[in-house]
Amino acid sequence: MQKLGMIGWRGMVGSVLMDRMQSEGDFSFVDPYFFSTSQVGQKGPILNGKTTNDLLDAYDIDALKEMDIIITCQGGDYTNSVYKKLMESGFKGYWIDAASALRMESNAVIILDPVNKDVIDNALNSGIKTYVGGNCTVSLMLMALAGLFKQDLIEWVSSSTYQAASGAGAKNMRELLVQMGALYNCVESELKDSHSNVLDIEKKVRMCMNDDTFPTDNFTAPLAGSVLPWIDKEMENGQSKEEWKGMSETNKILGLAPATIPVDGNCVRISSLRCHSQSLTIKLKKDVAVSDIESIIKEQNDWVRVIENKKDVTLDKLTPAYVSGKLEVPIGRIRKMMMGPQYLSAFTVGDQLLWGAAEPLRRMLRLLVA
Ligand code: HSE
User: Fold this and answer.
1) What are the pLDDT digits (tens) for 53-105?
2) Please, what is the end-to-end C-alpha distance for the chain in angstroms?
3) Is residue 146 in contact with ligand 1, taking CB distance under 6 Å?
4) CA of 13 to the centre of ligand 1 (A)
5) Which of 273, 276, 360 is nearest to 318 (CA)?
6) Which of 14, 139, 146, 223 stands 20 to 30 A from 33 (CA)?
């Protein structure tokens, strides 16, 4: 059996990955070894009632080199400090990574096999060993829209995102909830009094969220009761790095190099916990009937769900509250826009930690071992 090294398996994405791998029986196809950056020598996890190895040192190149496949959810700093040294040491195995550090490298493939299995197969056949999960908004947008991309119906996409706290990390999820609690606490007594004035309540909340003591260490600004229209670094062209990834990663996943399909829009953090949503404006290459568009979308993969453009079902099935923790990727609000018959509007929601992070990694493993 091939030896699998697991790194970063206790963090948030790593924990979701472990859970999915156990649910799908992935560990029965490999001989797993667990590594740690901080708790070397401590007990490994128990899998199917069996103890695993004591934790190996995630910085030990000789130990890593013994592996046939490595999956890391440890983050970009770890990748940057280990990957090059491991490759220079003569590592012959496969490197599967959740971090963005290597995504745009020419010897790396961005993995989203329901959408780009052909790209992955070609890479495997040509000896590529580095496979990297995509940016979550890009992967989720493609899970929803791949049918239209693959039929070459899309001239461009403008995606306005509504991104969950989980995309910023576990600490940010906690901070969002602490912020929500702080806002509630500051007006708890007024809320219990049904005769209190709502504008007085709003004023107190506003003062609370703008007070220096409001907890913003991680987001650097209030998110509860607000939105944050900047995600990731500043680029010189005025985009945020998150917005830049939209076009570069979409085209790379689809195997379009150089990038030919423009993808751009505003990326915004909202107070969802673990589901990203996106409002999409799509310019089609030709006028296609909405019923045909819906068929093309839903036939592309087993996880996309077309939600009828009706209020009840939209509020029931096209929200982070419904989609969190699920692998299905609903897309709804599909309609032609007032700009003309080639302009399509749609809204999609997907779990940031599943298809947006962990799921493509474990599926890549299965392509290698099953
Ligand atoms: N950059 C994403 C976010 C994380 O901040 O939501 C997933 O790639």
Assistant:
1) 999 999 999 999 999 999 999 999 999 999 999 999 999 999 999 999 999 99
2) 11
3) no
4) 12
5) 276
6) 139
167 within ligand 1 shell (Cβ under 6 A): yes
Task: Determine if residue 137 is left, alpha or beta; phi over 0 gives left, psi from -120 to 50 gives alpha, anything else beta.
Answer: alpha
Q: How confident is the model at residue 298 (pLDDT cuts 50, 70, 90)?
A: very high
Distance 26 CA to ligand 1 centre (A): 26
Q: Specify whether the CB–CB gap between 118 and 255 falls below 8 A.
A: yes
**C-alpha–C-alpha distance, residues 181 and 332, integer Å:** 32
Written as one string, the DSSP assignment of 214-242 is S--TTTSS--TTS-B---SPBPTTS-BHH
pLDDT digits (tens, 9 = 90+) for 210-251: 999 999 999 999 999 999 999 999 999 999 999 999 999 999
Q: pLDDT per residue over 96-147, tens digit each?
A: 999 999 999 999 999 999 999 999 999 999 999 999 999 999 999 999 999 9
Choose one of 100, 135, 240 to mutate for the ligand 1 pocket test, by most ligand atoms within 8 angstroms of C-beta.
Answer: 135
Query: Does residue 276 carry a catalytic annotation?
Result: yes
Residue 42 Cα to ligand 1 middle (Å): 31
Question: In the chain, how long is the greatest CA-to-CA distance?
Answer: 73
List, for residues 328-346, the tens digit of each pLDDT value. 999 999 999 999 999 999 9
Q: Which DSSP state fits 54?
A: P
Distance of CA 83 to the CA centre of its chain: 22
Could you tell me the pLDDT band of residue 259, with boundaries at 50, 70 and 90? confident
Q: Which of 73, 208, 267, 276 is catalytic?
A: 276
**pLDDT of 258:** 87
Q: Using most ligand atoms within 8 A of CB, pick from 12, 97, 136, 142 the residue to mutate for ligand 1.
A: 136
Helix axis angle, 359-369 to 113-125, nearest 10°: 40
Alpha-carbon gap, residue 135 to 103, rounded angstroms? 9
Q: Which residues pair with 110 in a beta bridge?
A: 132
123 token code pair: 């890479």
Going from the Cα of 240 to the center of ligand 1, the distance in angstroms, rounded, reads 12
**195 classed as catalytic:** no
Does 163 contact ligand 1 (Cβ within 6 A)?
A: yes
